[in-house]
Amino acid sequence: MRKLFDFLYRRRTFAIFLGLEIVCIWLIVSFNQRQNADFLNSSNALSAQVATGSQNVSDYFDLVEINEQLMLENERLQAELRDKIAFADSLDVPTETYLVKGARVINNTFRRSTNYLTILGGEESGILPGMGVISTSGVVGQVKSVSNRYATVYSLLHPKMIVSSTVKRTSTNGSVQWDQETYDIASLKYVPRHIGLKVGDTVVTSGFNSVFPPNINVGVVSEVNLEDHMTFYEAKIRLSVDFTSLPNVFVVIHENKLEKDSIEAL
Amino acid sequence: MNRINIREQIFNCIALLFIQLPLLYRITLGDRIFGFFYIGFLLLLPFKVSRPYLLLAGFSTGLIVDVFSNTPGIHAGACVFVMYIRDLWLRIVIDDTEELTNINHISLKKTGFILFVFPLVFVHHVIIFLVENGGLHLFGLLISKAILSALFSFTIVFVLNYLIVPKARRI
């Protein structure tokens, strides 16, 4: 009799074990949908507050770097302003309008095989899932989910992020996707073989989807490989964003996104 | 039979779990060493706790860590698995488990502690990196990450255990 109870008891443990593992697998699978507003991620208020606290501490050690980046950004903006003033008359051409919204990064990983950022800024400041995120030096990622005050962002260093890009010199389209190895290299895919792709070519966003504005830097071609049997180049690019130091980012808000997407869906 | 040392468990929880949360993915050495030392808290739970409770403890701890790392299910799944095999593994490694209640470097002896903790930490890390990676590609990177990170996490658990459980005290 005792043996029977022992047996049943062991089965109970195993059943709980199986049940919990199934719940875990379900969580993993359902989180892998592209966008969701689920509370089990880093834009959840509690974990975001903890992240803000620990970021506040480490920010003190990065102040020099942050200042330097802000100065560079100011320089760039100044230069652009001069250009704009010089060509003020020719600016009447209607263009797509993009607004940007600055946000502080409170958590950022770049060494895992799937990477995310958490930023300080959520629904209250008009940030919605699906919006693009850039920094002063280039493409950073795309918003995954938002809470009231925080947002979780797919880093460009996430295998699900595919950025529609253009090789600037030849205006050829391709896709940039991270290959899970190091945080400064990604792959440039689908550039056809008749294009003379060279090491050193600049790759920028194409602006074909309404996530990123056109002409935002993605990276520079660092390695080109073309065998006889291949239809497309196998190219690596060195990313222009330094993911190891990313104190501030900008969320891109595309004003006519809905209109553009709906007309393209027809 | 020994009594469960509540003080030791509370210190374990604070030192291993609550310190881990804000530091998750902030403690990295080089580009492939991550410290997931919160697993130490689960491994050092008292031996006499019944296994269903251990599983639930593993699940909830894992889920809390998951919220901080944007990986719902991955840490929880790994923890539940490790908690499932924990007592079986302890019985294999340690000959005399009759009088064992509190698990620490004194009750298990140094070699017992290493033999018990390190393989489980390694299994936990392998599961996490494997699932996060989404497959067996980049296998070399994966396995080197797992080995180095497991060594790192184990060292932290070991050192913290020395600090929490003073040597002079009799168990």
Question: In short, what is this structure?
Answer:
With 266 residues, chain A is α+β, with helices and mostly antiparallel strands. Chain A contains 3 helices and 12 strands; from the N terminus they run H-H-E-E-E-E-E-E-E-E-E-E-E-E-H. Chain A starts with a helix and ends with a helix.
Counted up, domains of chain B total 1
Q: What's the helix count of chain A?
A: 3
Question: Helical amount among residues of chain B, as a percent range?
Answer: 55-70%
The CATH superfamily label of the largest domain in chain A reads Rod shape-determining protein MreC, domain 1
The major β-sheet of chain B equals:
2 strands, antiparallel
Strand order of the largest sheet of chain A: 1-2-5-4-3-12
General description of the model:
Chain A is of the alpha+beta class. Chain A has helices at residues 2-31, 45-86, 257-264, and strands at 98-108, 116-120, 132-134, 139-146, 150-155, 162-167, 172-177, 185-189, 202-205, 217-225, 234-239, 248-254. Chain B has one domain (6-164). A two-stranded antiparallel ribbon of chain B has the order 1-2. In chain B, a hairpin with a 3-residue loop joins strand 1 and strand 2. The longest helix of chain B is centred in the last third of the chain and has 26 residues, at 139-164. Chain B is globular and about 45 Å long. The N and C termini of chain B lie close together (11 Å). The interface between A and B is large, with 40 and 39 residues.
